[in-house]
């Protein structure tokens, strides 16, 4: 009788822990899914993104692939507010890039963050 009671308690505890983790994860995901956009429409790429394999030339004779694809950085040129000092701010096009090392955010959470102000195109930044 005692062993069936302890088995029942351990199963109940496992179910409770599983449900707690499931609810906590769902609350955490819904808190992270806040919009990062500066406008109501969200972030949109300004042009097509082209991914290319970067190749290295060795001994001026042959071209060798590095074995691993190196992708071009994904950046957007969007309006943002740039400030010089505490009071002088102006809205201008900024180059946004993906940052996955956000403070106080869990691993894997990324966001578009402004990298430079007054960009003509992100490729030049």
Automatic annotation (TrEMBL):
Residues 73-123 form the DUF7866 domain. This is DUF7866 domain-containing protein. InterPro entries: DUF7866.
């Amino acid at each position: 009788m005692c062993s069936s009671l302890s088995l029942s308690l351990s199963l109940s505890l496992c179910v409770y822990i599983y449900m707690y983790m499931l609810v906590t994860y769902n609350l955490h995901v819904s808190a992270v899914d806040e919009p990062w956009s500066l406008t109501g429409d969200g972030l949109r790429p300004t042009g097509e993104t082209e991914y290319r394999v970067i190749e290295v030339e060795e001994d001026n004779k042959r071209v060798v692939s590095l074995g691993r694809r190196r992708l071009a950085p994904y950046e957007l040129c969007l309006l943002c507010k740039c400030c010089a000092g505490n009071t002088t701010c102006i809205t201008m096009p900024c180059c946004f890039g993906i940052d996955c090392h956000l403070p106080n955010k869990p691993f894997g959470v990324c966001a578009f963050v402004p990298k430079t102000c007054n960009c003509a195109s992100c490729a030049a930044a």
